[in-house]
Amino acid sequence: MADTTEEFNFPINIPFEEEVQWSTLVTKYESGKEQRRKKWSQPKRVYTVNLRGRSKTVSTQVWDFYNSRSGAFDTFYFVNPNENSVTSERFGTGNGSSTIFNLVNSPLPSGAITVTAAGVPKTETTDYTINRSTGAITFVSAPTNGDALLATYDFARIVRFAESNLSRELFNYQLYNIGVKLAQVL
After folding, report:
1. For residue 162, what is the DSSP state?
2. Residues 61-89: pLDDT tens digits?
3. CA nearest neighbour of 166 among 76, 71, 47
C-alpha cells in the first residue's frame, strides 16, 4: 500500500452516509448459549459520498483523483465534517522527564493545532514538534510534573475507494446519484 497524505478535498453533500462495521466471531452452542469474540479494537467506517449538483469540472477532478489513486489501491485522507474536530483533549500529564505524548486521533491533516501545558500555549517547532501521521507530540523540554497537556485539532481518517473497476459513466452515475464509497483503512 502506498502511503499518501493527499486529502479528499471535494465539496461533498451533507448529510452523507456513514456505516460502521465491526468484526465479531459468534459461536452458537446446542444449548442456545453463544460465545462472542471481538476481532477489531475499533470499527471500520465506510462513507458513501455524492456530489449531486456539482459541475462537470468537479466531476472530472474527482475522476482524475480516483485514477491517480489507482482505484482502491492507494489511500488518502478523508475529513468527516461530523467528527473531525477535537477541543481541549487531555493527552497527557507532565512528569518532568517524558517528552513524547500521543494524541488520541490521527492522522492530522494540514491545519492549525493548539497545544497547552498547564494552560500556557506552546509554539510548534519552538516548544514541540508533531508527527501528523501518528499524532505523536515531542516536547523540546519535558513538561513539568503535574502539568495538564491539552490539544485542540482536526483529524482525518485514512480511506481508499471501495471499488477498483468503474467506467467513467458508472463512476459519474454513482457520484451524482448513489454515491461513491470510501472504505476506512485501519
Report:
1. S
2. 999 999 999 999 999 999 888 888 999 99
3. 71
